[in-house]
Amino acid sequence: MLPVTVHPAMKETEKYLETFEQFAAQAKQPGWILPLRKAGITRFAELGFPTLQQEDWRFTNVAPIAKLPFRPAMQASSDGLTREAIAGFTFGSLAACRLVFINGHYAPDLSTPGHLPQGVVVGSLATALSGDSELIQAHLARYAQGDDNPFVSLNAAFFQDGGLVYLPPSRRLEAPVHLLFISTAEEAGTTSHPRNLIIAEAASQVTVLESYVSLAPTPALTNAVTELVLGECAVVEHAKFQDESRGAFHLAAIQAHLGRSCNLTSHSIATGARLSRNNIRATLAGDGVECTLNGLYLTRGDQLADHHMVVEHAQPHCNSHEYYNGILDGRSKGVFHGRILVQPAAQKTDAKQTNKNLLLSDDATVDTKPQLEIYADDVKCTHGATVGQLNEESVFYLRARGVGAETARRMLIHAFAGEIIERIRHAPARDELDKLIWERLEQNPRVGEKKRV
Question: pLDDT class for 29, splitting at 50, 70, 90?
């Protein structure tokens, strides 16, 4: 028996502890991984599932996840998928170094990593762990440690595979890397724990597209963690697109550790899942960093989309910008919790944060909480949030120029989403997402309607 203490108020964790004993006994891994896994399951047991009484979770009820049976997806299978089918998914037809994962397991027959420059690694994390894993050991779980997030700890305990991207100093990868995660689960509670590690050494450059889809309406769980490590003057664009089924649950953590004078742009586009939560933390650990976090969530029905982020300015002369827009319909709910943390050493910080929400129905709701926590005295920091319907003055402006009322509303809603999409620098990915978002909005009959008050 492993020495794990059960949180007295969280009996839901017991099934996870029992499963872990069997999982750890049969997992093939280097010796240094087991202590990491034990620390993860121990911390998960200590924390238990978050409750609405906890400040960071008071708007997002994860009780439905806690009540699910726990069925880790243990085996790799292509489940009849073909490369032609892969091309039908978002980003699936783009020219890219593509890694495909089915229920969290690498599917080499469906993947096309392509020819890579010398020293560049784009491959399966599990495969890399079976060989020389010194590079992985130096970085894995060093940044996303799960001290305050039980789902990150759960991922550390149960992860089996994910994407590994490594660029040596001064290497540039022209084609984007596409990490495609497909859920084919047919049993409720089927769970995958993808673990992605992206390392860009000094002066390297890469674009990483990370997408999640599912083929069935099963209440399955994806619990993903992505760690981004940028060296001095590295340039990375990262775009995460979550479009899982309306029955699915999606939890994700993105942790970025940013070195001197590097540039990170990270996008989060959320359109799927019954409940999704993205915990994003960027630590600006070197001076002169440029960091942009950019996001869009489209919800309808009873969906809930939650973005919770912390941007920590630890060194001087760094700039950060956070832009998140939400378009909500039906009885859906959006949650935004953003905190800019400026440490005492981080003089000359320039930080901006905005969250804007557009409600298409009377029953849609948003809870937004932008925050500034500043311990330096020579900074420029701003934050703000808006929740409401379309600006009727803007509608009137367009109508006065001969544009019909319905067309005017469609134009303004598309432009609201376009504010976020246009910041994606990789043009093919930007164009594909722009087309998809346009189609999703056009399918909504309320887009052209005036919201009743």
Answer: confident
pLDDT in tens, 357-400: 999 999 999 999 999 999 999 999 999 999 887 656 555 545 56
Residue 350 burial class via C-beta count within 10 angstroms: exposed 0-12, middle 13-18, buried 19 and up: middle
Would you say residue 267 has pLDDT above 80?
Answer: yes
Say whether 383 sits in a helix, a strand or coil: strand
Contact 81, 182 (CB under 8 A): yes
Cα–Cα nearest to 366, from 380, 356, 374 = 356
Residues 239, 244, 310, 318: what is their CA dihedral angle, to the nearest 10 degrees? 10
Number of residues that make up the chain: 453
Q: How many CB atoms lie within 10 A of CB 400?
A: 9
What count of Cα atoms within 13 Å lies in the side-chain half-sphere of residue 323? 16
H helix or E strand, kind and range, residue 224 = strand 221-230
Provide the 8-state DSSP code for 215.
Answer: S
Tokens describing residue 186? 């047919």
Angle, CA 109 vertex, CA 105 and CA 113 arms, to 5°: 85
Distance CA 136, CA 348 (A): 34
Alpha helices by DSSP H, listed for 275-391, are none
Please give the model's pTM, rounded to 2 decimal places.
0.93
179-221 per-position pLDDT tens digit: 999 999 989 999 999 999 999 999 999 999 999 999 999 999 9
Contacts of 319 (CB under 8 A, 6+ apart): 289, 290, 291, 349, 350, 351
- Rounded to the nearest 10°, the torsion over CA 45, 50, 56, 57 is 160
Please answer whether residues 250 and 275 qualify as being in contact, where contact means their C-beta atoms are separated by less than 8 angstroms. yes
